[in-house]
Design a protein that fits this description.
The chain is of the alpha/beta class and about 350 residues long. The protein contains 13 helices and ten strands. A six-stranded mixed beta sheet has the order 1-2-10-7-8-9, with helices on both faces. It has a four-stranded parallel beta sheet with strand order 5-4-3-6, with helices on both faces. Helix 1 packs antiparallel against helix 2 and helix 2 packs across helix 3. The longest helix is centred in the last third of the chain and has 19 residues. Bound molecules: pyridoxal-5'-phosphate. The site of pyridoxal-5'-phosphate has 21 residues, from strand 7 and helix 8.
C-alpha cells in the first residue's frame, strides 16, 4: 500500500472525533435491590451507542489506531473477522470515511446481524467453519491490499486504558456522587478481552480498590485458561452467547488484570435477561444476562461476608437483535434448555440475598 495522503488522514481523524463529540455518554442505571442490603447495583447501558453496543467504542479506537499508524488511506479496504457487534460498528465508521468494509463471518451468522452490517454499507464474506475466520480475513486483506483491523489482537492495544473517556473512566465519573462511589466489583464478559483489559488496567492505574470479574459462558476457553494459566487451551466450540465466550484464548485477553472468572450456564444468562426486562424494562442481549447472573453471585457473597458497597455491570447490546432467539421460547426448547430452575434461583436471590 502506498503511503496515505496526510491531508486525507488528518480529515479522517477529524471526522471520527467529530462523531464522538456529537455523541452523549452512555447512561448508568440503577438496578433495584432491597435498600437494607446496603449494596447498590448499576448497569452501564452501552446499547445506546449509535451502533447499538459497547463495540462502538472499540471500532472507533481500531479505526483511529489504523489511521495514526499509517495503515489506512483513502483507498484502503477494511477487513475484519467478526459476525457480531464489532463488524456493525466498524461498518458505520468505514462508511463515514468512504471506505469499503468486508467482514469474514461464519455461514451460521444470524440474518439480523448480516442485515445490520449491510445496513451500514458493510459486506459479509462467508466461511463454513468459525475457526477459519482469522486466516480468511488475513488472506482477504493481503489479496486486496487492504487493512485487517483484527479486533482480537488489537482491542487491548488500541483502547486507551488511562482515560480518554474509555468505559472505565466514564463509569467512575458517573459513580462519583453515589453512596459507594468506588465499586467493589465491576463485572463484564469477554470476547476479545479488550473491555476487561481496559477496566483492569484503569483501576490499577488510578489505584482504586475495585476488583474485576469476568463472566464466562459455556464452551468458552477463558475460565479454564485463567484458572490454570494454560493460555493455549482451546475448546474448539462456539459460544451460544453472542459477543462473549471464545473457543480459543484471544490475544487481547489479559488474565493478569482479572481478579476472578465466573463460569455462567447459558440458561442462567437467558433467565437473567428476561428477569431484567420484567423488573426494569431494559431489553438486553444475552451477554448482559451473563453479566447480571455473575453480579448477583458476587452481591450474595458480599452479603454473606457482611460487606456493603456497589457493583457495576454492563448492558452490552439491545435485545431486539435476539427477538427470534434468546427471547423465543421455541428456540430455547430447541437448544434443550430449561430456564425455570435458574429463574427460581434469581428470584430467590432477590428475595433473600442468598445464592
Ligand atoms: C455483545 C458483546 N460483545 C462483546 C463483548 C465483550 O467485549 P470484549 O470484546 O471487549 O471482551 C461483550 C462483553 O460483555 C458483549 O456483550
Amino acid at each position: 500500500m502506498s503511503r496515505p495522503d496526510p491531508v486525507w488522514v488528518d480529515e479522517a481523524v477529524r471526522v471520527i472525533d467529530a462523531d464522538a463529540n456529537r455523541s452523549a455518554d452512555t447512561h448508568l442505571h440503577v438496578f433495584p435491590l432491597p435498600p437494607e442490603w446496603g449494596i447498590d447495583l448499576y448497569l452501564k447501558d452501552e446499547s445506546v451507542h449509535p451502533t447499538g453496543s459497547l463495540k462502538h467504542r472499540l471500532a472507533r479506537s481500531l479505526l483511529l489506531y489504523g489511521l495514526v499508524n499509517g495503515d489506512i488511506g483513502e483507498e484502503t479496504v477494511l477487513v475484519e473477522a467478526s459476525s457480531g457487534s464489532t463488524a456493525v460498528s466498524e461498518a458505520y465508521f468505514a462508511r463515514m470515511l468512504g471506505l469499503d468494509f468486508v467482514t469474514v463471518v461464519p455461514r451460521s451468522t444470524s440474518k439480523e446481524k448480516i442485515e445490520l452490517i449491510e445496513f451500514y454499507g458493510g459486506r459479509c464474506h462467508y466461511v463454513d467453519r468459525p475457526p477459519e475466520i482469522y486466516a480468511e480475513a488475513e488472506r482477504l486483506a493481503a489479496e486486496c491490499g487492504g487493512h485487517y483491523l483484527d479486533q482480537f489482537t488489537y482491542a487491548e492495544r488500541a483502547t486507551d486504558w488511562r482515560g480518554n473517556n474509555n468505559i472505565a473512566e466514564s463509569i467512575f465519573a458517573q459513580m462519583r456522587q453515589e453512596r459507594h462511589p468506588v465499586p467493589t466489583w465491576v463485572v463484564v464478559g469477554a470476547g476479545t478481552g479488550g473491555t476487561s483489559a481496559t477496566l483492569g488496567r484503569y483501576v490499577r492505574y488510578r489505584r482504586h480498590a475495585t476488583r474485576i470479574a469476568v463472566v464466562d459462558p459455556e464452551n468458552s476457553s477463558f475460565y479454564h485458561a485463567w484458572r490454570t494459566g494454560a493460555m493455549d487451551y482451546c475448546t474448539g466450540m462456539p459460544s451460544r452467547i453472542e459477543g462473549i465466550g471464545r473457543p480459543r484464548v484471544e490475544p487481547s485477553f489479559v488474565p493478569g488484570v482479572i481478579d476472578e472468572v465466573l463460569p455462567v450456564p447459558d440458561a442462567g444468562s437467558f433467565a437473567a435477561i428476561r428477569l431484567l426486562r420484567e423488573r426494569t424494562g431494559h431489553w438486553a442481549g444475552g451477554s448482559t444476562g451473563t453479566n447480571l447472573y455473575g453480579a448477583f453471585q458476587l452481591i450474595a457473597r458480599m452479603l454473606a461476608d457482611g460487606r456493603t458497597g456497589s457493583v457495576v455491570t454492563l448492558v452490552c447490546d439491545g435485545g431486539e437483535r435476539y427477538a427470534n432467539t434468546y427471547y423465543d421460547d421455541g428456540w430455547i426448547v430447541e437448544q434443550g434448555l430449561d430456564l425455570a430452575p435458574h429463574r427460581e434461583r434469581l428470584e430467590s436471590f432477590l428475595a433473600t440475598g442468598r445464592w
